[in-house]
Input
Amino acid sequence: MELLKSHKSVREYSSKSITNALLNDILESGIRASNTGNMQLYSVVVTTDAEMKDRLSPFHFNQRMVRGASVVLTICIDFNRFSQWCKINCTSTDFSSVLWLLNGVIDASILAQNICIAAENEGIGICYLGTTLYNPKEISEILELPIGVVPVTTVTMGYPEGIHEVADRLALSAIVHREKYSKYSDEEVMQIYHEKESLESSRRFVVENSKENLAQVYAEVRYKSTDSEFFSGKLIEFLREQGFRL
Output
């Protein structure tokens, strides 16, 4: 529990490499995760080659973690392998529905988190990259992913360099509902976010982006609706190319 409570996103890595033996042990811990029907409808593409990191980097908005990490893991939904197994055995199944898309995302996400916990337990820093879903087609082309394989998240890994702070989180009382969902009053919502808004980093965010408050920074700068619409369109188009009925 202490390991989980002390989680830090690590974006600066030392030059020390993760050995293949340790990496395999971490990945083995990952695939022990719970998954739908024990079908393990996911794959992990391991990138350690500097040239491959360079090729991937622009599609993660050139975040420094991609080139600086010892290992870059692209976590994918993978219906290709299971479908091929069915075909060899003179049967077939349909994974093209939204239900299976969501099942795949859930299973791949649990896999990714298992990997991250195993890595942190060995003193290795990790950072999730949400940019994978912004450019799935381009990433897929670089990694030569076949039909039925969709990248859903990326994890960078390496031995930490420098000091990394534990990120702020909302209080448990803000997240947990007992027996049924409790609606928030406006006053309760403001109280929930008060500590986050009071952080020096949050105040700096507001000033740097010329906004009145932190909510405006999130809604109007970091995660604008126009950006969401654009990248959602790209994602839907790619998923349709991959055979999903959307």
